Amino acid sequence: MPSGVMPSGVMPSGPRAAVNTAAAHDAQLTIVDQANYTMLGEFARGGLGRIVRARDKRTGRLVAIKEMLGSSSDIAKRFMREALLTANLQHPAIVPVYELGKWANDEPFYAMKLVDGSSFEDVLAKAKTLEQRLALLPTLVAVADALAYAHAEKIIHRDLKPANVLVGKFGETVVIDWGLAKRLTDVEDDDAFAPTVTPLPTQAAEGQTLAGSVMGTPAYMPPEQARGDDLDPRADVYALGAILYHLLSGAAPYTTLRPKTVGELLRLVDSGPPPRLEADTAPADLIAIVDKAMARDPADRYPTAKELAEDLRRFTTGQLVGAHSYDRWTLIKRWLRRNRAAVTVAAVLLAILTATA
Description:
The protein has helices at about 15-25, 75-90, 120-125, 130-135, 135-150, 200-205, 225, 235-250, 260-270, 285-295, 305-315, 330-340, 340-355, and strands at about 35-45, 50-55, 60-70, 95-100, 110-115, 115-120, 155, 165-170, 175, 180-185. The chain is globular and about 95 Å long. It is an alpha+beta fold. It folds into 2 domains: about 15-115, Phosphorylase Kinase, domain 1; about 115-315, Transferase(Phosphotransferase), domain 1 (Orthogonal Bundle). The strands form 3 sheets. It has a 5-stranded antiparallel beta sheet. Strands 6-8-9 form a 3-stranded antiparallel beta sheet. Strands 7-10 form a two-stranded antiparallel sheet. The protein is built from 13 helices and 10 strands. About 40% of the residues lie in helices and about 15% in strands. The longest helix is centred in the last third of the chain and has 17 residues, at about 235-250.
């Protein structure tokens, strides 16, 4: 059995169990018999918990069960918030929650759809050319659509990154890990930590979620998040732009600068934009979307993911992108391409009229 996976019927005890008891009690969760599930082994873990592949004996369905890791009250609150927010988000690109409850020892858990596939981070890593990565744009559009829905529900994710997007074997896209998410109508935010400088190996710093300091993942977080300021949907817009930057360049923003600590990376994020993408290495329309989404001032970004998704969709369908300024000759060429048949007919008629004149 993988490390960290408990056999059915074995329950933790001590401080962690006490914290879990408080979290489960606050949410008034129903006790679920752990024997309802056959645990098939841990396959992932993050800052909040481990995820175990399991089979629901009542339905025969394979599921993913998330159980909390850690013993702090902050983690317990974030775990419950993630479970409840995810359960209330009903969108094809957000993993559905099948059951939310607690084991007999009051340890909270939730069972969700098991997505059999790879993280978008792994998918991007395997795409070695720009052409291969541009073919992945529909995945990013699906992510933006999911966030547009969440923003309409007054919820922000606050930790968008390729590792938190799953791409299924049949092309389905799912946004996961809503542990840092926040409902904007909530007055209090228990996770409003001030920035701190935390040593961390370079490779881990780029894509690792911070806990207990600045919330989020440094390479994909906006400057206001690096400073610990209040956030709104435009923080997620920045992260979507950072993922598009990764798609176009083949690397996360700021990666080439190789900061040695999380604190150094946070200062880079706060001090200025990442190395600019060049028009000779990526479509100018998409670079314009990146520049608008990752604008230093939130007021200069798309207001929500909906507007960003619309611009991405315009690009994929050959339309003019709102974020890009086109010169007159480019507009003429695009018009000629879209109206090629009409132009051809007009040219033939003109030739006929000229010949018969």
